[in-house]
Amino acid sequence: AVDAATGTISVKAMFENPDETLWPGQLCDLRIVLKIEPNTVTVPRVAIQSGQIGNFVYVVDSGKAKLVQVKPGATIDDETVVKSGLQGDEAVVLEGALMLNNGAAVTIRDTTPKPTAAQLDAPKTELVTSGAAKLN
Description:
The protein is mainly β. It contains one helix and seven strands; from the N terminus they run ββββββαβ.
């Protein structure tokens, strides 16, 4: 169970440690997978806006902003699950959404961060272009 005061979970595990990288009693950070939801649409947390109509995102459609109502789910790190409203292939607005209205002209910029040397040497994982909803 999660300790409500600290937001932590105490874990005890046994595993091989042939290089003696870890020592008894040593604290470490770990990630626990509680549930896997296949075919889930996620967007960066900053894409979801809240207004009088509820939660929404702006989707870029034919160079114009289109307001789309969404039902957000859990947020993990900087990604929010979208339970309904998006298919997973839309380009969503991440910056400047407060100055938009439905039908406003939008220009898409390539905001994909350039990988650092450390990232290039790291084990390969899925690279997702920022600004797009994605289907997990």
